[in-house]
Design brief:
By secondary structure, this protein is α+β, with helices and mostly antiparallel strands. Helix content is 39%, strand content 21%. A hairpin with a 4-residue loop joins strand 6 and strand 7.
Length: 246
């Protein structure tokens, strides 16, 4: 049985000198496919089945996976390839998608999130720290781990006069007035909680429209990364690599 699908290559495993197995993120979910001869220099499938290639794939179903019979590249995000830190960040995004996006279910929002973030990185339209934090928080939310940041978990108030406490595992926060009652110690400025709220509750096209001070930026990066690690229950190797070279 043959089918076609638009998707982006989010993972690859070399299976020989010329072949690889690729994982695609498509609007209908994750797809694993065998790409014969895709490592040959100048080969018909070489560019269109490479990491970060968004292509139209012709697929033939097999016993355990699909086989790529043809692919037409639509976007390869080549500027990302030219900068080691951005490429490492993009591959980290892809690894998260491999863990979080479903198989044979609607994945259109996951695909839109990944594509938007790659376009922003490729065009230098938003700083990497912001793209990273938005991607982490939005992808976790899409996977069912949306933080409850609408109001203080003790009093329900939506703002705070001072620094607050955020629990990455429980996914709730406590305002400055309730810290003593809750037996908590402040660990983030409230501006970070406001940024998280904007990120996860806004439409995707508006999720990046916030500003923070330099110190709050660092704290948002810390929070979003800790949030991923708390709920993913594994530490992506690509995250270590990105943090090493950024």
């Amino acid at each position: 049985m043959r089918s076609t699908a638009d998707g982006i290559v989010i993972w690859e495993v070399r299976t020989g000198e010329a072949d690889r197995v690729i994982t695609l993120l498509t609007p209908s979910g994750l797809v694993t496919a065998y790409a014969r001869g895709s490592l040959k220099p100048g080969g018909r499938l070489t560019g269109s089945t490479a990491m970060l290639s968004y292509s139209n794939f012709e697929l033939s179903s097999g016993k355990s996976m699909y086989t790529v019979t043809d692919a037409t590249s639509q976007n390869r995000f080549l500027k990302i390839y030219s900068q080691a830190d951005k490429y490492a960040l993009a591959v980290y995004f892809c690894e998260l998608m491999k863990y979080l996006a479903p198989t044979e279910e609607d994945s259109s929002e996951f695909l839109s999130l990944l594509m938007n973030c790659l376009f922003l990185l490729d065009g230098d339209l938003k700083p990497s720290w912001q793209v990273k934090s938005v991607f982490e928080l939005r992808s976790m939310s899409l996977a069912g781990y949306m933080p409850d940041v609408g109001g203080c978990s003790v009093c329900g108030k939506e703002d705070s006069a001072g620094a607050v406490f955020f629990d990455p595992l429980e996914a709730v926060w406590v305002c400055s007035d309730c810290l003593r009652e809750a037996g908590r110690i402040a660990n983030y400025p409230f501006s970070v909680i406001a940024a998280v709220r904007h990120t996860v509750y806004s439409e995707l096209k508006k999720a990046f429209s916030f500003t923070l001070s330099d110190e709050s930026r660092k704290e948002l990066v810390r929070l979003s990364e800790e949030y991923v690690l708390a709920h993913l229950e594994r530490k992506p190797k690509t995250l270590d690599f990105y943090n090493m070279i950024r």
